[in-house]
Design brief:
By secondary structure, this protein is an alpha+beta fold. The chain is built from 11 helices and 4 strands; from the N terminus they run H-H-H-H-E-E-E-E-H-H-H-H-H-H-H.
């Protein structure tokens, strides 16, 4: 009963809160930069479809002069620019006024689809606009940390730690029954350290459900097999039943919710709240510096 009373009125002195605070602190410091990267790229990728439409590749026209080069001649012309690459003709449009696309695969840099003049063999640049390639790069960074299957596994572990951060943060946020209302808002009139603390506390409380949702659905996107196994166990697959299973629909909505694929208002909300975790990281580091690092430096 005493522990319950302490938790209700002065939780800061309870052993549970102290333990969870340490977990929250060191987890946040350990994965903070990861969370910043994932959050910022996630906010951008809410508008992935719009970005792809904005930077949609367009055909490149050329001057029709003389005879078209043969496939072997095109490969030879491409090899003059990229001598160490594996090269093949990727697309050769029927329209004589359009450039051809050559596949150029270089060790270490992957495959690029590049445009060449089919009459002169001149190199005309990448077939995909910079904005398209940057959007694709950002998506790969967000999904796989630019590391393929290994990066996706690391991403799943990061999502799990983000879930730990959100849950421990909610417990730590509780200031006691006498102060919970003050902890819901930012006290802008206080000194800068108090403002920093209240931004971390209030922003964390109001966005906790979003952050936990992103973390949980991120775990699913990185490790879908255990979730699918649970669905198969609860709703065994029936070959003669073509109705969608409830579990499959839930898993579909995990992906849908993660990326905010709803209306325009929802996209703005998802993109805006996605900027909160970087704020949480910065304010958390400032608190750690003032409470731990600065006193340690002063004593040494």
């Amino acid at each position: 009963m005493a522990d319950t009373g302490s938790w209700r009125r002065q939780p800061q002195g309870t052993w549970l809160r102290k333990a969870l605070f340490q977990i929250h602190l060191w987890t946040g410091l350990g994965v903070g930069l990861y969370v910043v990267v994932i959050s910022l790229t996630g906010s951008v990728l809410v508008y992935r479809s719009e970005l792809r439409q904005r930077f949609d590749p367009q055909p490149r026209t050329v001057s029709v002069t003389g005879s078209r080069l043969s496939p072997d001649a095109l490969i030879a012309a491409t090899r003059q620019v990229f001598p160490e690459a594996e090269i093949e003709v990727w697309t050769e449009p029927d329209d004589p006024a359009l450039a051809v696309t050559m596949s150029v695969e270089d060790r270490g840099s992957g495959r690029d689809l590049l445009l060449f003049d089919p009459y002169t063999g001149a190199y005309l640049g990448n077939s995909l606009p910079v904005g398209w390639r940057l959007t694709t790069w950002t998506l790969d960074l967000h999904d796989n940390l630019l590391g393929g299957d290994t990066g996706r596994t690391v991403n799943g572990v990061g999502a799990l730690l983000l879930a730990v951060l959100s849950v421990t943060g909610l417990v730590i946020w509780w200031p006691g029954i006498d102060g919970w209302r003050r902890a819901l808002v930012v006290d802008w009139r206080a000194n800068w350290r108090r403002v920093n603390w209240s931004v971390h506390s209030a922003f964390g409380f109001w966005t906790m459900l979003f952050i936990f949702m992103w973390a949980f659905t991120g775990i699913y996107l990185a490790f879908p097999e255990p979730f699918a196994a649970v669905v198969d166990y609860l709703e065994p697959f029936e070959e003669d039943n073509f109705d969608p299973r409830t579990g499959d629909q839930i898993l579909y909505w995990f992906s849908y919710m993660h990326f905010g694929r709803f209306s325009g208002v929802t996209k703005v909300t998802w993109a805006t709240i996605g900027l909160v975790p970087p704020v949480m990281f910065v304010t958390g580091v400032v608190m750690w510096w003032n409470r731990v690092v600065r006193p340690w430096l002063a004593s040494h």
